[in-house]
Amino acid sequence: ETGVTQSPTHLIKTRGQQVTLRCSSQSGHNTVSWYQQALGQGPQFIFQYYREEENGRGNFPPRFSGLQFPNYSSELNVNALELDDSALYLCASSQVGQGSLGGYTFGSGTRLTVV
Amino acid sequence: SQQGEEDPQALSIQEGENATMNCSYKTSINNLQWYRQNSGRGLVHLILIRSNEREKHSGRLRVTLDTSKKSSSLLITASRAADTASYFCATGEVGDDKIIFGKGTRLHILP
What we know:
heterodimer, A: mainly beta, 7-stranded mixed β-sheet, 4-stranded antiparallel β-sheet, globular, B: 6-stranded mixed β-sheet, 5-stranded antiparallel β-sheet, 0% helix
């Protein structure tokens, strides 16, 4: 049974650029949630994807968007990068409805630095 | 937005001592979970306590929940160097699959 895999592990982008982060969910899981964690802070919920559609969104602007693919993997896209987007981006997979019941498996994250 | 606050923000104790971290939250919850994060990497689920439970144990971990005060505590007994990490509480609400994290407590175990 594989866990959650995120790529790349580190990324440096310039302000105004666009970035795509990728996540492969754990075998048997059908939802993917994305979290942003600024330095010294707790993770903040960006959105969740289920059945290839957004299934809940946190307080993030539309320039944060996502996709889920038929194999349940997911992408997080951020357009028009700002310096404040520098953070660790965490992906978590679960069976639908089980994440909030302790069923999340987290990846190791992508560290994004915007300069 | 963050659900609540952990207290203290940072804690340093000697190996072998007990570590206690507290978490307060704002809304009605279905359950409360504690996670550990090593060196700013992935989160590992430690323990979940349901809103109708008051105390739960798992190995060296003891969690309490007081829904009237909207607070929880995590006790790690007989701490080890490997317990050095950040600890986060996260709440799950009824009818919502996302979990909301607090700001975390950074625990450092001194040799």
